Amino acid sequence: MIRTSIAFMVFLVGFYGLIHSRNIIKSVISLNVIQTSLILLFINLSRNVGSGLPIVGMDNLKPVDPLPQALMITAIVIGASITALSLMLTIKIFHYYGTLDWHEILSMEETIR
Amino acid sequence: MQNLTLGLVFIPMILAVVIYLLDRRFINRISLLIQPVLILMTLLLFKEVHMSGEISFVLSGWARGVGIGLRVDQTSIVFMILTTIGMTYSIAYDWVSHRDDHKYLFFLLFMEGAILALFQAADIFTVFILLELVTILAGILITYKKEGISVKAGLYYLLVNSVGMTIYLMGVIFIYNSTGVLDMVLLSEILNASAPTTIQYAALGAFITAFAIKSALFPVSSWLPLAHGSAPTQISAFLSGLLVKIGIYGLLRVMSMFGQVTYFNLILVFGIATSLFGVGMAMLQKDIKLILAYHTISQVGLMVIGLASGTEAGYLGSVLHIVNHFLFKSLLFLGAGAVILIYGTRDIRKIRGLFKTHPLISIGLLIGVFGITGAPLFNGSLSKYLIGQSLYGRYAEYSLYLINIGTLISFMKFSQILFGDSIHENANAVDAWKCGSIIGMSLLMLATYPLELIYVKNYEAVKFTTESLSGSAIKYFVLSIVAYLIYKKILSPLLKKKPELGLSRLGFQAANAMILVFLTTMWGYFLLIMP
Q1: Which residues of A touch B176 (CB under 8 A)?
Q2: In B415-507, which residue ranges form alpha helices assigned H by DSSP?
């Protein structure tokens, strides 16, 4: 119960960061925080104290559910690749505009051909 | 048959990798030549699915629910046909500049393989992985022009959709925690057996929020005008045509998985709000691509209205509107791209006289305009009629009249580009590939209407009489006269006096605040109001 509420609080902190941050890099970091909180939530929800490792022939205990762990490894990898791509686009935006502020970037009046 | 479905996924992906690694002229040309082969494969699958029921199997022979399953049923095969057609014009439209660009072809073909796999996925985590992949690839393709505004639009699109996908992952977590399965067929059995628990309703709220962000419903749609207005033309057309429909596909699957219909009124409200918002913003725009982007938002609202009405006519109308919207929105975007190249400007007040100098492109644009406004004898009328019939007798039917009038007003303003005298011209900018794509899409659109009539006749829930069809035709003419009067008397003088209306840039922070508000609304409704 405590662990799931901590995960929710981290989720809300991440969302607060998304809503509040004027810097693009802080938005990317907040997205990472949200993804981390979900990984934390899922691993804790499938926690089973006293069960064995999910490897065949390891010990005689009932194995813990391995599916959440596999799904979360996938989610970590996806989060890492999205972070990489958004940081690369942030670098490009800095080259074009010279600023990393969301308000300045989105309110620039420019036409595109 | 199983080889056919797997081949549809892996042939574009492997070809994409081969094109990227060996940068040779001959192999780049294969990317266009393989598209008719893929279209034929999807049509073969369509015939197979309609003859012998759905095709479903699990990879490597694992049991259902244990291994990765693929399932092609009557809804997904329609989407798969649209994907292959969309990829054909995406490659063919700009063939002259992109035929040697192996990176561009790599991204496009890989996205095709990913989208085709997405429509076949049978469990919700595979959908998550493939949706993230499609989001990443679409974000890269939006920024392909390498201008400042394209990179800005691509980053905005990527971040907002990633937040949406994270909320989707939260829904997957809740579902797995409460039911222990991830497969969609098994889930629909479990969730239909008894009323969903609190945590399952929370998962439903998360799913609906995620797919609402993907398909640009009213509060969370701010990424769409930026992304579709700044992308390269054929990418805008493909995005508007297919990628927003992926959100509708997700909504469709989730709503049929849960099976309860009591929350449909909430989604109906959001659908109507989306349509009215899209149409209202579209009437005030000056940029030709932004008009079409806001109309995408409005038509997506119509599809959500059709789904949320809960009747079979509404579901059918929604699926047909997905097909029709793909056809005419792609046609309009491709035509608009050609117009921008000819005139060198995107301002709709400066473009005049297209019909005199380029009659074929203007006929294509006119066919698209008739389709989207729902003129009789064009395919838009069928889907709008079905959606209107699904709301028969409810107060929501009047909103459809408003939406149709708004669409008509906006497209009367749009079609001013066809008349008048030519002001400024660069007639050689449009080569045979672009013109051929436009003509091909318009012929495809004209040919689809009889096919849809045949498709619809098999459903007994749909009632057609000559009185109802001619009634809808008369309604169209009356509405167009009203729209013309409103345009001439009210809208034109208003826009001349205040030309700066219509610029809306919802900031990134405000977009995320809207996502949080939407999510909280959904959760508040499901957890507090419903029980």
Answers
A1: 42, 67-68, 71
A2: 432-457, 466-486, 492-497
Q: Which of B312, B368, B318 is nearest to B339 (CA)?
A: B368
- In tens, the pLDDT along B322-347 reads 999 999 999 999 999 998 888 888 88
Q: B121 - beta bridge partners?
A: B70
If DSSP states are collapsed to H, E and C, what string results for B7-40? HHHHHHHHHHHHHHHCCCHHHHHHHHHHHHHHHH
Mutation choice for B interface testing from A81, A102, A106 by most B CBs within 10 A: A106
Say yes or no for a CB contact (<8 Å) between A107 and B505. yes
pLDDT at A108 exceeding the cut of 60: yes
Q: How confident is the model at residue B519 (pLDDT cuts 50, 70, 90)?
A: very high
| pTM, to two decimals | 0.93
Q: Are A92 and B143 within 8 A, CB to CB? A: yes
pLDDT at B424 (0 to 100) = 65
A91 touches chain B (CB under 8 A): no
The complex scores an ipTM of: 0.95
Helix and strand tally (H, E) in chain A?
A: 4, 0
All domains of chain A in start order, with CATH: 2-47+56-106 (1.10.287.3510)
CA angle A51, A57, A63 (to 5 degrees): 20
